[in-house]
Amino acid sequence: MTTTAPLDDITESMLEGPAPGRRPRGTLIGLGVGVVVLFAGLAVPYVITDTYRMSLLLDATILSLMALGIGFLARHLGQISLGHGAFFGVAAYGVGVATTNWGWSPTAAVGFAVLAGTAISLVMGVLVVRASGFGFLMLTLALSQALYSLSVQTSARPLTGAHDGKLLSYDREMTFLGLTQADVMNPGLFWPFAWIALTACAMVLWLVGRSPFGTTLEGIRENEERMRFSGYDTFLPRLTAFVLSGAVASLGGALFAINAGYVSPEILGFTTAGDSLIAALIGGFGMLAGPVLGTFLFVYAQANFNFGGNLHLFTGIALIVVLVFMPGGITGAFQKLWRRVRRSRR
Amino acid sequence: MNAAQVLNGVALGSLLMVLSSGLAMIYGLRGVANFAHGALYMSGAYIAYTVSDRFNFWLAILLVPLALAVIGVVLELVFFRPLQHRSHIELGLITFGLALMAERIVVLIWGERTLRVTPPEILQGTTTLLGVEYPTYRLSIIVIALALAAALVLWLRGSRVGLHIRAASQDIETAGIMGVNVDRVSLIVVSLGCALAGLAGTLAAPYIALDPGMGNAFLITVLIVVVVGGIGSIGGAMVAGMGLGVIQTVSTVWSPSFAVVVPYLALTIVLLWRPTGLAGKRVS
User: Which of A137, A196, B56, B284 is most buried, by CB atoms within 10 Å?
Assistant: First the structure.
């Protein structure tokens, strides 16, 4: 039961939210940092010449797109999704089907796949965004699991390859934005695409979060009912945010399929989405970069601590430790530390 | 379609009923969807394998729920109670982490290969029912599960503790103010829910093959059952579990690829038609 006047809370949370009109300089500085990070990242293949390390970095960058989408939804809408594997996976299969079955060029296939993943997120969004909390978690999980179950059916074999997965094949002359099939599998050559996609998406999501639309989302997150009473439509903003986050995950899935040249049904399954969610949680939702940091750590851990197939034992422990002792994740802990340092200086 | 297929559906439904009533009870009280429920069911089945291997199956039916009840006490005391003021989603994700760990621990102890449990001799063979020869063991699953469900409902409706559980599920704060010892009720509910998961695992062990993925496969169906039945409603979960079990098994006969999407379809339809589930009052 709250005793404060309902209106107070809304204005308060709105003022707290980032308002671009009031802080255009912050936006410019943020964009500047983003562009610097973008260009600095492009130099990575020249610094890291080891192919294995480079491929790990590339994997982490691609998977970060999914975590970024999950994080956006959690940060601005307070909704935890276990269904982003569906968008990632549908886009990945979209690339496979468009190139291998229809003979499209990889570039067109990626465009199609991102649209297909986004379309799935629109359909799923219509069904799930009204739910909140656990309802949302379970619905996203159930619907993505339904897609997984359909994809491994024998009748889906021509499209998805069922349990065998799908091997991409396209003409030797066809290229993905100038890269042949051998080139896209070279992590150093494919890196710029993944990195630009990640930084561009992160900047777009960051700007959306700071826009009036982002403020509306935060209002819905804080109290959906009050937003409705205040005359806001809450369905459309939630759906838009969901589709936006689904589109980012779809882009990740499409790039993943092009780079790997193979799509296994596991990526549609619950483990992929679960791993990505865990990575995002460990990184922390408080900052947009949190899920990305978490994914890089996760991929690093996967490569180095997976002895005896015990990775999930460790991720389970890590998840519990983070949730129990530092609910804001790693970036949250840093933010807290930073705030404490600043306060003690004053 | 013949009687045997319907009975198969009822047997699957019985297992779903036992599992989902435990999940629904915990959900109703703590507001947490226990993602570790599938892992508890799996651990139950594996412990039952060891006990029936060393001693006999009857002892397993007795011991496994007790062992799982102890795990439930640990769950409540270590996670649910100290963290009850955290958001429910966070607690749910912690149980997700526990499930991940449990799956690996089971592999470390029992290995990855598929294991089988033989039912006790009296329950082997078949019985003639409704004009068909039907495996006796599956019939006994149905009988045990139905008896258990009836006992659970009677206990919840008739006893003082049952009254407290129902009160706390409606509104835990008000129940606490009215003098219900909420911590004690919660301890009972969580350990009972875990014991039921263990019992479901034990009953399922001779019926299905044991593998470390069995918990996850079932968990999603059980979560769906609980949502379809109405979040927090035990009766709703029981009815939905039985219904889903029968519908899924029967539709497998018609079209296997349709049958796999039946739970998801049911979930989507029910939530579009009645967002709070069949027997639910609230969505949380």
Answer: A137
